[in-house]
């Protein structure tokens, strides 16, 4: 298998860099500006760290030596997908960008934004089932059809798929974890069940890739890439599971302290 | 009867399920770390795997993560309610762990041919030890659960309680 497309054209690499850089600066400015407003709570610095590391992991996939190597080596391609589709979305979700934006926007604009978030379309996309189908279903389409081969011959397809991988990963993360305002909430049980199915589908796809998908690539590379997908996916999803269950644990806290009862 | 016992006996099912979930997750975790990663006995993928096997493996693997984390959060919840019950938890843990090991050793390894315990050896002793251990765990778990239930009946003045 050879690749026509060596890597992203330099102009596009620069564009991605500019987007990421302005995102970082923008976040920092909003954070500093809203921290000056006295009635608002102090914005935690760790969220800035989440935002910066999230943008950095997404950017890595498009720019520089890593991006170039991903075109030749399936293992690095897969590592890139873990960064772009799982780690970056989780970090960015943890940085609560919508909350920051709502703090910074003037009231009428903030109202319009919350109204948009409550819109039925937003509700549809944020449903864990929709988000999981877009996320894992998209991966099945990519690896179980000729799409993966086609991607390396058409730049627009390459861009579309990569944007989709990130967007679907982000959508999936925020459909499970409500860090930013989430108007239409699903129960913990429902989210857990959908999540189990999504993680299972991810694991099954990894093993299918290992078994016999992607013919024409060096088999050892494909196998190692598939195992990376399997275990890397486990690792990132484990973090989401812990955060999900931590929220559940917090929300079901008993109303009174048991310590007080026993000592009285 | 002390108050802490009262808490514990009013959370029988939660203690049992915390144990079952954690036991299942724990055995799956041991399976992954020891037999896949450290010993390299199990294979990541075996050509003879049926598609049902692939699906079953995927579901159980995913579920085991949730079971481990969820089981531990249930324990944390029982602790903060002063209702953690060691005997019931251990009963559930042995039952859940043994149940999963038996399923893995019979249905997944043999019927769905996911992978074998070890390759290039006479597999029979491995299979026997694997599954007999599982059955012993299940029996010990059930005995512990029964004994824990009897404790709670005694503590409640001989009244039979539905578990």
TrEMBL record, chain A:
Any single Gene Ontology cellular-component annotation: plasma membrane
Membrane topology per record: Multi-pass membrane protein
This protein's UniProt keywords: Cell membrane, Membrane, Transmembrane, Transmembrane helix
Localization terms from the record: Cell membrane
Residue ranges crossing the lipid bilayer per the database entry: 12-32, 48-67, 79-103, 124-143, 155-179, 188-210, 230-249
InterPro entries recorded: Caa3_assmbl_CtaG-rel
Principal localisation: membrane
Domain of life of the native organism: Bacteria
Protein name: Cytochrome c oxidase assembly protein
Source organism: Bhargavaea cecembensis
Automatic annotation (TrEMBL), chain B:
Keyword GTP-binding: no
Matching InterPro entries: DUF2243_membrane
Regions that span the bilayer: 16-39, 59-76, 88-103, 123-145
Domain of life: Bacteria
Alphabetical UniProt keywords: Membrane, Transmembrane, Transmembrane helix
Name of the protein described by the UniProt record: DUF2243 domain-containing protein
